[in-house]
Amino acid sequence: MGVFVFLPLVLPLTAWPIARLAEQHLHPRAATWLLSAVAGVFAVCSTLCLALLMVVGTAQLPGNPLPDGWSDPEVREAVPSDEVTGKAAIPALIAVLAACARVLWRHQRVRRRAERALAGLPATPVAVLPDESPYAYALPGTRGRVVVSTGMLAGLGSAERRALFAHERAHLAHRHHRFLLTVQLAARANPFLRPLRTAVVYTAERWADEEAAQAIGSRRTVALAVGRSALMSGGAPVATLAGFAAMGPVPRRVAALLGPAPAGRIWPPVFTTVGLAAWGAAVGTTASALSSANSAVTLVAILHATTSV
Amino acid sequence: MKDREHGRRRGQGELEVQVLAALREAPEPVSTGWVRERLGGTLAHTTVITILTRLLAKGAVTREKEGRTFVWTATADEAGLAALRMRRVLDGESDREAVLASFVTGLPPQDERMLRGLLERAGEAEE
After folding, report:
1. For the whole model, what pTM was predicted?
2. Where does the UniProt annotation place the signal sequence (chain A) (predicted)?
3. ipTM above threshold 0.85
């Protein structure tokens, strides 16, 4: 077990380069899949190791449910016996589980409240709401719906409206809310995974933009639709810290749409920056999975040995 | 217990729609009793008042004093009520972006300048 149990807690750092580069160099669909999968694996491994550390940590507490053989000197040798880490893992794990439960609960609540808000309207795929403030949302569910305000539609030409609907339909068709929820949970499980969440929030939008561009046959129209609606809803509260990134997500999306279409390849060539970053992330993910598996197996073996003595 | 709670709340959301629909059919400002009769008279008087008060809080109806009671007028239709309720969801949830992928997010001033530049250039390319 030893040091391996700590590795999955810090290995998410190996995914930082790819989080940055994938949004620029991979097709948004590939980037979303890759980054979400990497974030998911890292998060599960990190939480598993936290749980293992917690088991070790509870061994030092009086009245723990572990077998008596656990306190044998040989056993104590085999597991990390650092008291501070073991005890710190207990509140850390509780915090992680509570944060993840909160994310899931809020997710369900927003969906339920939004569905309830639309009760009484005919069950059409698109709900147009009379509201001057411009907004458009994809509301996931058994029958996904696009919710758009009259204020948003009023500011767009007919081609741009089609672009907007195509974008929202792409969100629903490819179940983007699942990717968003995955990275949301991963960012709660391990704070080192936050850059991946930011990246996936962006690549999912880019993915829907590209789908919309293909559906209506014009990247420029989608760019104009994104740009115009962003200018309309300007002044809305911004969740991220502005000023850090040279360019926020919306101008980057517009610039990407005005540029050439992204290449369709899934995995980048090895000997490029993005290739190396992708391989770095892949190696990190594998190492993380192997370390946590190794630690888990060791701990189970020790527990088995102590109970059978 | 939890299911019943959800059922009750969803029921109230549907009742709001029914009460509003009844009120919209009224030829003039009407009393709570009129609304209750219109809905078949199965609801308790207090329930109708509760729902009308909730609609008032959402801005979907107005009321005025007539003698010792209130008379009510609908100011929104079903879509309007849905819009008012949706606004409450959107305003109330700080991290709604995680659930409802929004078409665009907010725009800091610096981004706005860049975006205007990009759109101008896109417009020029067209001409």
Report:
1. 0.80
2. none
3. no
